[in-house]
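User: Okay, second chain of the day. Same drill as before: sequence in, structure tokens out.
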Amino acid sequence: MKIPFRTVIATAILSLNSASAEDFTRWVDPFIGTIDEGNCFPGPCRPFGMVQPSPDTGGKVHCSGYKFTNTTVRGFSQTHLNGTGCPAMGDIAILPLTDAKFRIDGCKQEVRMDKSSETAELGYYAVTLANDVKCEATATKRVALWRFTWPKDTPRIIYADAAAMLMQPWNAKLGATVPDSSFSLGSSDKTILGYKKALGWTPYKLFYKIEFSEPWAKIERLASDPFQGKGDRWIIRFNAETQHSGEDSLEVRIALSTVSEAGAEANMKAETDGRSFDDIRSECRREWNELLSRAQLVKGSDEEKKNWYTALYRLFIQPNVQSDADGKYRGADDAIHTAKRGHYSTFSLWDTFRAAHPLYTILVPERVPDFVDSLVAFGREHGHLPMWTMWNGETHDMIGIHSIPVIADAWKKGLARNGKRDADDLLTLMVQSMIGNDGENPKNCWNAYWENGYIPYFAGAFDKLVPKGESVSTTLELAYDWWCIADYARAIGDRRSAEKAQRWAECWKNVFDRKTGFARPRAPKTSGGIWREPFDPANPHADGNFWSDFTEANSWIYTWHVFQDPQGLAEALGGRQKALAKLDAFFATMPIRTSGNPDTEGLTAEGKLRRGQIGQYWHGNEPSHHIAYLYTLWGRRDKSAAIIGRLCRESYLPKPEGLCGNDDCGQMSAWYLFSMMGFYPVNPCGDGYVFGEAQPEEIRLKTGNGTFRILSGQGASREGGIFLNGRAVSGARISHDDIMRGGTLLFEK
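Assistant: Same drill. Structure tokens below.
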């Protein structure tokens, strides 16, 4: 049925140019996700920037360095990860003091904060400490800026720790976490140039320049902390006579580089020379406002707007630029290379390939070629395409090689800068990344995959390097990566390679037990290939292992992990109706208590469902994120809409405990943004976006050809359908091109 199009676009004459004066940043609350599982930090940064100056609170080391409920701070460091499940970074910490007798005890120094004074907004963070020092931060791409203001006539002291890192005590097994470092003091008594090599989640090298707004009166180098190794630390004293409006202020600028001390110096000069703290703060806010204006929630509640714009902000924190202002960067081979426009890292690919990267292709398509170039360059420098990169290193965290779907998706959308020869070379790199990295990363164990057609839960006679645990998840995720390679090969016209890759893509079926209707662990073929017993699809802890055969999930969740072939999955389950019944059971089956750990079993300590848990579905982790949309693909969009609406309302709240799980470098935020718009990339490799239900009344996206409007409300047909540019949509998806062309998508209520 066709709707009178004029009724749909009556308000489209409102120009997006008029919105450029609107302050979208006012809706962003950086404190959202800083309690419980969100693991977010409140400090300022630029979109996709290298630095993230932010407080590191006391007590237990938190993944992002910060917990909202903590009342002490151990330091203000310059690098942080957004929403990860592992602590890392936290480089070059500084702390303003007033007491010359303050005791620096290893990494345990802490100062109490006045929490009532704490504020955070885009481009700015501020807090006053119990010693009455006001601390303010802003940032450029590669330079962190701090302004400390002491009460008049108070001793002004800075503790600076160039060896600081966010690490848990168990990282002591690494030995000295800073095995090498060096520094030099500038002749003006205002600068420190230095370098450190750090161990941790992945080894990396960091070069820095610290510049003070006035000369120090005295600088004292402290003994290295045994835990840190050769790291450099100082107590720096400044004269108390320098006055600014009756108070004593000091600015500290910290520039970073992966290349050299000279690179850090050049970055500071390029980005801060002749510009004040307040100028840079205002510029940072303007830059964020332009980016947020690309996806406007026009009609919705204040709570929805806070969640929406904060999610956009989290999405655009990473990937992080790693190249200097002149384009140079340190590659995965530890050599210095030059990027044409920018080289990026912090690719949390097991998380972000699902929704964050597809959303970048819509909202920041001009950035995507640089992201792809960065992934490919890393692969050529390192020997295989990345899994999870931080700075110039590979963490080998999680499973699969999900840079492959990111690259293939960008190629299919015309966002990869490659000619025919490069396309063929890239296909070779994809295949070699899947079959040639056993020695370095045994998780993906090609040898066992080739011998069995799946990863067995223990090694067979001819298997090598079979990991302990996660066998089913690894099989399913490798099968998906092989499908992406096959799809890419088809796109570039290599039919023979496509056929070979497709055979490996079909291996998901080898861990699917049609009798029970679940993905299950199997013994190697040399031991008969029998299913593991006993088997409980709700139990993630077989044999007492933390995750056993599944990655951060159980069989109930991973059974649906067939992005590339949902219709084949339905057939394996006995047909569409039985597949729908299985989905109903999935969302209705209560979790079970097996180990008393509420983080892994869906129940609180009181035995109640945690927020984000619906039956076996757990929204706080990525393997569940696509599952509700399977209802749409199997003909019941109404059920998708009901579950998605509930998750948007309950799993995202505009307060510090607002996220029910790790933001994981923007993936949790990307799910929310897509689902609020009413569609989601179930297969994130160029397969369009599956419909759910738009949540607010109106959203506008800036696209290459104008505006794409998403409306939710009363339509002329009154039949609850979906209409694109006035015409009824009969399928389950909207294409990427339909969005980028601009137009209007209406979800009738």
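Residues 440-564 form a domain with the Glycosyl hydrolase family fold fold (CATH 1.20.1610.10).

User: Thanks, on to the next one.
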